[in-house]
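Worked example 3. Consider a protein that binds calcium ion.
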Amino acid sequence: MFTKRRAIGVVTAAAAAALLVVTAWSAGAQEPTAAPAAPDRGYYTLTGADTVAKRTQVISSADVLQEGHDGGPMELVASPEQVEKLRAQGFTLELTGDVDAILAKRSGGPSTNDVGAADFPAGDEGFHTYDELVAEVTAAATDHAAIAQKGSIGSSFEGRDLPVVKISDNVATDEDEPEVLFTCNMHAREHLTTEMCLHIIQRFTDGYGTDQTVTGFVDSREIYVIPTQNPDGSEFDISGGEYQGWRKNRQPNSDGSVGTDINRNFAYKWGCCGGSDDNPSGETYRGASAASAPETAAVQAFADGRQFKAHIDFHTFSELVLWPFGFTEDDVTEGMTQEQRDRFANIGEQMAATNGYTPEQASDLYITDGSIDDWMWGTHGALSYTFEMFPSSGGIDGFYPPDEEIGPQTTRNDAAVDILLTNAG
Ligand code: 0X9
Ligand code: CA
Ligand code: CA
Ligand code: CA
Ligand code: ZN
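Given these inputs, the predicted complex is written out as structure tokens:
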């Protein structure tokens, strides 16, 4: 899903975002007619989801982009079949745009420095394709061999290597230092997060020996960075010179559809609570079984072999700092004492104070099950957060900020990353 819920108190921003989407569409090639045929992927405003249960119901059956609260409208992407189903469930849906038309307009045609089907569209070349990412990560490790090592956690469904970079003093030795993990690009279209992990790698390698804060963390921590958890999906998303709005991995399903939502496939409370889709064509399809996606299995096996104290999984968008659990609305439950919850909230609030994001429990607006943060905490006791990066709200194009945002939006999280590293001690 575009799974974008919005923090309480930004109704105006959401309304503005909705307007922007309508404007973008109206300016596109296809003008609305009196009775427009439902597009393959329509952008809709939905009303009638006035409880968490109803919102969860909508979210597990369509690609929700903007999560309303207090009965406010939700915005979502839906196929004609999904629309029919939601209307039958009593929700009111109003068509406001054609997702494919919006994406085509945003993409602006093939890149001028195109190196093949999988380059970013023209004007967005600052984003790294998979090959460019691997080249950067390899260079960082080669150029800083004393403190950085490139390894692999396994392969994607289509066989792409899933690199991991370790950054620490005496990098070749497994020392008794707190281990911290940063993961990115689990959802294909969330390309800004790949840049976030790359920025972390570059900051903690290039800054070593000159930047005192960086040097202190490299000397006292073992920092692991997995810059992409879904290379097949992200390459697919930029294929054909046009953004595809793709979320899941690229593993085929038994019904002929493609993709598992990796963030519903983790083996903690997998499929427990209505926070994922059992329909393979759904955007939050949880997979045939826990860790059925090779990417999930690789991340799990890697984390099982280490002792991570703290973790951030970067996503886009909504500008949120989220903590577990997502599978239950309860703040405190089995596996989460009041003290632990308060620690999550306290550190989450500290981090949010540095980047201007909104801190809250993951389930505050809807339930998710099988997510990485619940698994990292529930299985390994790691202080695990999900960051939803820039922008704070938007339509489908919220996943495709201009590459000029890469610098500002990644450095924006430096202080929050440092707070996490400090609290891993
Ligand atoms: O729904 C998700 O997987 C994440 N949002 S996104 O729009 N990037 O897809 C949020 C996951 C937050 N963590 C939990 N809910 N456990
Ligand atoms: Ca640009
Ligand atoms: Ca070390
Ligand atoms: Ca160690
Ligand atoms: Zn995501």
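Take a moment to read the result before moving on. The pocket of calcium ion (ligand 4) is lined by residues 174-177, 179, 222 (CB under 6 Å). The chain has two domains: 42-106, 130-423.
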